[in-house]
Amino acid sequence: MILLAALDSAGIPIPAVVDALLMLLSAKAPEQAIFCAALALIGSLAGSMFLYWISRRGGEVYLHRHTVSARGMKMRLWFQHYGLLTVFISAISPIPMPMKLFVISAGALGVRPLAFFLTVLAARVPRYAALAYLGAHLGQEGAGAYLKAHAWHIGGILVALFALAFGAIKVVDARRNRELHA
User: Fold this and answer.
1) The model scores a pTM over 0.85
2) What angle in degrees, to the nearest 10, is found between the helix axes of 33-66 and 113-149?
3) Which residues, in sequence order, are CB contacts of 165 under 8 Å at separation 6+?
4) How far is 90 from 158, CA to CA, in rounded Å?
5) d(CA 111, CA 126)
6) Residue 78: how many CB atoms within 10 A of its CB?
7) CA 115 → CA 12, 118, 129, 139, 176, distances in Å?
8) What gap in Å lies between CA 108 and CA 56, rounded to an integer?
9) What is the mean pLDDT of each run of 10 residues along the chain (182 residues)?
10) What is the DSSP letter of 32?
11) What letter would DSSP give residue 109?
12) Minimal CB count within 10 Å: which of 53, 90, 156, 179?
């Protein structure tokens, strides 16, 4: 679990494998669900921090090369303006989202390591806890079916969460601009 979560978070794409394994192990041994979620969390944090530190050392070149396209540049600009919110939303979502570019952006653009770590932690704890809970209480097939049946709800919650955070950022930006021009 630790190794797969670390590899996935370090940028080696293995979409949904960690989530499926967490639900499977939680279904097979419900009393170990919290332990399995903790292992996934440790692996994810280790992999994310590894990619972050690699990016911190030379990610600007990689980031420049992969943000030449209009889509890549748009993602980079989003990160530059919304910062760790982009990491948080992509890390909390059980719906596959591009997290690697945001992690690389965090490292290459000089986000403080503790802030990055705490953001990934704050996103992964509820994600893995929820997946472990679903696996332990519904079984792997039931948990997978639940996620598929509620994908739109989950997406809506993520959009609402993003909108709230986006609104908060806009309010802070407006206050900051008023203070600068006052």
Assistant:
1) no
2) 110
3) 85, 88, 89
4) 9
5) 23
6) 15
7) 23, 5, 21, 35, 21
8) 5
9) 92 86 94 96 96 85 68 71 84 81 86 94 95 91 85 86 83 83 76
10) G
11) T
12) 179
